[in-house]
Specification:
Number of strands of chain A: 2
Number of helices of chain A: 5
Largest sheet of chain B: 8 strands, antiparallel
CATH topology of one domain in chain A: Arc Repressor Mutant, subunit A
Helix content of chain B: 25-40%
CATH class of one domain in chain A: Mainly Alpha
Helix content of chain A: 55-70%
CATH architecture of one domain in chain A: Orthogonal Bundle
Strand order of the largest sheet of chain A: 1-2
Oligomer: heterodimer
Structural class of chain B: alpha+beta
Mean pLDDT of chain B: 83
Distance between the termini of chain B: 10 Å
Number of helices of chain B: 4
Largest interface: A-B, 33 and 46 residues
Order of helices and strands of chain A: HHHHEEH
CATH superfamily of one domain in chain A: Winged helix-like DNA-binding domain superfamily/Winged helix DNA-binding domain
Low-confidence stretches of chain A: 117-123
Shape of chain A: elongated
Strand order of the largest sheet of chain B: 1-2-8-7-6-5-4-3
Strand content of chain B: 35-45%
CATH topology of chain B: Alpha-D-Glucose-1,6-Bisphosphate, Chain A, domain 4
């Protein structure tokens, strides 16, 4: 799963491929349709699609002659999961920090009755 | 004095730039948050789960200083080090961060503390690395360490803190 996600992130590092993904999020499209706005050869777009395909982000149906490209939303869910786990780790860390800050607050409190008063600290 | 609801952490991993931004609010004023981040004795109490022992080997928290700490669990050890690039008390902390197990993946980390008033602070950390590959390695590390055995230790510490 990790390798798959690494490939997905790497595949999305390219701006053209990101754009292709954005357009496929709207609707399936053929290679020719995808190539049109880029002023790019069908071969060049095919290359990008190959990278996206290897990353599991885009699939192509075999049946129709048009062979439309289709966005695989599942991989995006995995990426979200990955980031969410990292977020949760940060949250756990910060909950620990909350506790430390709360304790520091008690120590900073000058009129805390539960603490013995420090007399004669001449500083 | 604490709200009953826990403040939530938000994270943004930029899709095309090797950036991770983490934002969190705290029920404490900026000077206290800053101290918890720069005082080594306070820092080790929250940086890692209780199951991981963190030992500060070197800590010179001033502009141009440096730090090194070692985390260990069950005989396994991991070292981390970096430089304190700039410290601006209660406002801003810029440092580098390297995990010795991934020595080429240095991160430049900027912490900005925003005073929200009423004894509250927003902390925004932005980490920048050299490539998306490095960034993903960092995100992946969250996967390996994050979910493990943290929760009950956390509850314990929370109870201690009150």
């Amino acid at each position: 799963m990790t390798d798959e996600l690494s490939r997905a992130f790497a595949a999305l590092a390219d701006p053209t491929r990101r754009d292709i993904v954005a357009r496929l999020a709207g609707a399936d499209a053929s290679v020719g349709e995808l190539a049109e706005p880029y002023g790019m050869s069908v071969q060049a777009v095919s290359k990008h699609l190959k990278v996206l395909g290897a990353a599991g982000l885009v699939s192509r149906s075999r049946d129709a002659q048009r062979r439309p490209c289709h966005l695989e939303a599942e991989v995006f869910d995995l990426m979200t999961t990955w980031i969410e786990r990292y977020r949760r780790q940060a949250q756990e860390r910060f909950v620990r920090l909350d506790a430390v800050l709360a304790e520091m607050g008690e120590q900073d409190e000058p009129y805390d009755e539960s603490r013995p008063r420090q007399e004669g600290a001449a500083s | 004095m604490n709200a009953t609801g826990t403040n939530q952490t938000s994270i943004e991993a930029h899709p095309t730039l090797p950036l991770i931004t983490i934002t969190r609010e705290f029920d404490a004023p900026p000077d206290r948050v800053y101290r918890a981040w720069t005082d080594p004795e306070l820092f080790v109490r929250w940086i890692g789960p209780r199951s991981i022992d963190t030992r500060v080997d070197h800590w010179d928290a001033r502009t141009g200083g440096s730090w090194h700490y070692t985390s260990s669990r069950d005989g396994e050890q991991w070292g981390f080090f970096g430089s304190f690039h700039e410290l601006r008390p209660n406002e801003r902390l810029v440092q580098t961060f390297t995990f010795e197990g991934y020595p080429d993946g240095v991160s430049l980390e900027t912490l900005v503390l925003t005073d929200l008033g009423d004894g509250r602070t927003r902390a925004t950390t932005t980490g920048v690395v050299a490539s998306l590959e490095d960034r993903d390695a960092i995100l992946r590390s969250g996967m390996e360490v994050g979910v493990i055995e943290g929760y009950e230790k956390l509850d314990e510490l929370l109870a201690d803190g009150r």
